[in-house]
Amino acid sequence: MYDAFFDYLSKFSSEPLSDDDKALIRRTFIPSKLRKRQFMLQAGDQCKYFAFIVKGAMRMYSVDDKGTEHIVRLGVENWWMGDMESFVMFLPSPYHIEAWEHCELLYITREGAIDLQKKVLAFCEMKQQLDERNHMANNRRLASAISAPAVKRYTDFIECYPELYKRFPQHILASYLGINKDTLSRVKRQRYQK
């Protein structure tokens, strides 16, 4: 399980991980498994762990007063999953995080993440690069949700995240894109007719 994470980390740093770095990472991360439909986090609980997805697919969502699910984030192998605000601010989360498939995960606590940032250069560099990428991706998604037509949202999504498109069903993708299933069906038909 750890080898997948070591390979992932190596993509963010020109410096190879030392044996001491690997030993510290092994001591810091907690291996775990979730069955399909099992929760990593439920709304109202504090997000005490962030998870690196070694294997499987997950979704993060909220549920409104009418019982409608609103997908906030999707994740597959080599992605991270957790509620950052709850994790950093020690607040109850408004989100559910659920395994969409059977998952193998590496959990890290906030204290563990802070410690690794101080002691493992590759982890620090990864964190910085991911923060930058996430900031840009969130801005793009927000701008798209505010002003882009459904066809553009769908096209951008499948171009940027083909691995998600293949792993999640249409109703999940529609919720993630902020459109209903019927609109997504119509958009797909229009796109393939061109």
TrEMBL record:
Protein name listed in UniProt: Crp/Fnr family transcriptional regulator
Cyclic nucleotide-binding domain: residues covered: 8-111
PROSITE patterns per record: CNMP_BINDING_3 (PS50042)
Pfam families the UniProt entry points to: cNMP_binding
Top-level division of the source organism's lineage: Bacteria
InterPro entries: cNMP-bd_dom (IPR000595), cNMP-bd_dom_sf (IPR018490), RmlC-like_jellyroll (IPR014710)
